[in-house]
Design a protein that fits this description.
Layout: H1 11-20, H2 33-45, H3 55-73, H4 82-89, E1 102-104, E2 109-111, H5 116-119, H6 123-128, H7 132-143
Antiparallel strand pairs: 1-2
């Protein structure tokens, strides 16, 4: 995957990123409105990078957020099922109030310690936990500081 301009987010490189993440071109033509919409959403809600953040980190934050958004909004082309399968696989159409804190049955027990930042996630932040791209965006957002969108 090679970006034409790795120093600033742009639609052409976002498209390259999406295809490199496994989105089939047959299910998402390069002129699809969904690419533009997902990119615009990501640009609109992505963190504002701190001055010392490397430009490529901001670019990757936007593209990961955009990929998450793309999986939420894109509709499959006729005869294709990629986006429906992804929404099912990542349980994007189900409500999850947060990660499991504890579980047990008669012979076993597990408890997960929730990191402090998880306790403060917004609905958007909880939604981002569903996909690897959303989680990657949250990781980049945490680099911006404790009051970044979705992680305060």
């Amino acid at each position: 995957m090679t970006f034409a301009n790795p120093s600033t987010p742009n639609l052409a490189d976002f498209t390259v990123f999406c295809y490199a993440q496994g989105v089939p071109e047959g299910d998402l033509p390069s002129d699809s409105d969904y690419l533009q919409w997902a990119f615009d959403i990501a640009m609109g809600i992505a963190l504002i990078p701190p001055a010392d953040m490397l430009p490529i980190l901001y670019v990757l934050a936007v593209y990961n957020l955009g990929m998450h958004q793309l999986l939420k909004i894109a509709q499959d082309q006729s005869g294709q099922t990629f986006f429906a399968q992804q929404r099912t696989a990542f349980k994007m159409l189900t409500f999850q109030a947060g990660p499991v804190g504890a579980s047990a049955d008669q012979s076993t027990s597990n408890t997960l310690v929730a990191a402090d930042f998880i306790k403060g996630l917004t609905m958007q932040g909880l939604d981002l936990l569903n996909t690897p791209w959303g989680r990657e965006y949250l990781a980049y957002a945490q680099m911006a500081g404790p009051n970044a969108f979705g992680v305060s």
